[in-house]
Design a protein that fits this description.
2 copies of one chain form a homodimer.
Chain A (H helix, E strand, L loop, with lengths): L4 E5 L4 H17 L3 E5 L2 H7 L6 H4 L1 H17 L16 H9 L6 H13 L8 H10 L4 H8 L2 H16 L7 E4 L2 E4 L4 H9 L3
Parallel strand pairs in A: 1-2
Antiparallel strand pairs in A: 1-3, 3-4
Helix pairs in contact in A: 1-6, 1-10, 5-8, 5-9, 6-7, 7-8
């Protein structure tokens, strides 16, 4: 059985937005098995000595990022990019909800809809009413999914993915893993797919 | 007349190596005017509060970079990548020599040969004997070029490019400018070319 391509992302990460909207379809077109892996960048940044996203301490890099994301959304035909009012947004609840939905047939639709609510509609993806709206839009009942997101098992799952990311060498987001091979950045999705296809 | 694509790079930057070996041929194939713009990352990093390259304070990111460069050199058919013994290498003298050669028909050959000496042969690109070897290999007389590199005009040119880079929003390397539009990273060379071709 072929090694799956794993997409490791944080819902607060703007470049993860662009990657998340592209990755599942690209893997499908390449015939590659695929899994979502939500994690939290906060502890990953803290372990590197950062109190916040490095974009917040590098104004030129942050200004570039917003402009770059506008261009990338045009390039890939995604909804128009809108920088969030607060950056980075909190993403613990939405990350847990992503974990709760893993394996569900609408998981990918949820990931894409939550990201789009955040980075195109300008909503706070960590607010329960926003998430209830996203779930409702997908025909999923909000209350039980939000309850599951706060269960000890799901909370532990998000912590466990975050720990695993750190142990596997993650320093930012998004990341593509094919076995132990890490490919960083949504720009390199095609490289990760080529790598996966070249594996025996 | 079409706006040229400007390649802004530091000879100490490993991703600039990959970009430098690709960019002139890619612009040529696209029919785009092209210019080299050597600058120094040191002052750019200092202005952002970094005492050294951010790769040196993020071990996971640095480990990833070395592996990524191995893969990129394979992908683009470049000489095998070799991480330098010291990172970042000093690059003031080689940067000045790059400035001295701007407009010379062998400028591009010099840039590529100096980068290859550094990142494939493992040489220190800031040592005058190494640079003399690179110049000799291109049929250029070493002594007068090394002398020109240390002239007040050429020193001022490198400082001026570095100042200009900071003013235009540069935060790392390599960078592609098309007019005021900045495209960061060698991975995005094709995007910069597409942008340049779409300009009136």
């Amino acid at each position: 059985m072929q090694t799956p391509l794993e997409f490791w992302f944080d819902f607060a990460s703007p470049y993860s937005y662009v990657g998340a909207l592209r990755v599942e379809a690209a893997c499908g077109a390449a015939g590659l098995p695929f899994v979502w892996r939500p994690f939290l960048l906060g502890p990953i940044f803290q372990a590197q000595g950062f109190a916040t996203s490095p974009f917040n301490t590098q104004p030129a890099r942050k200004a570039y990022m917003w402009r770059d994301l506008e261009r990338l959304c045009v390039k890939y035909g995604l909804p128009a990019f809108k920088a969030p009012a607060v950056f980075p947004q909190r993403s613990v609840l939405v990350g847990r909800l992503g974990c709760a939905l893993l394996g569900h047939p609408r998981c990918g639709d949820f990931v894409r809809a939550a990201f789009t609510a955040e980075f195109s509609a300008g909503l706070d993806p960590n607010e329960a009413p926003v998430l209830a709206g996203v779930l409702g839009q997908l025909g999923l009942e909000a209350a039980p999914w939000l309850e599951k997101a706060e269960s000890p098992e799901v909370k532990a799952q998000l912590r466990s993915f975050t720990d695993e990311a750190g142990k596997r060498g993650v320093f930012g987001a998004p990341n593509l893993f094919v076995g132990d091979e890490l490919v960083f950045g949504q720009d390199r999705l095609e490289d990760a797919i080529a790598w996966a296809r070249a594996q025996p």
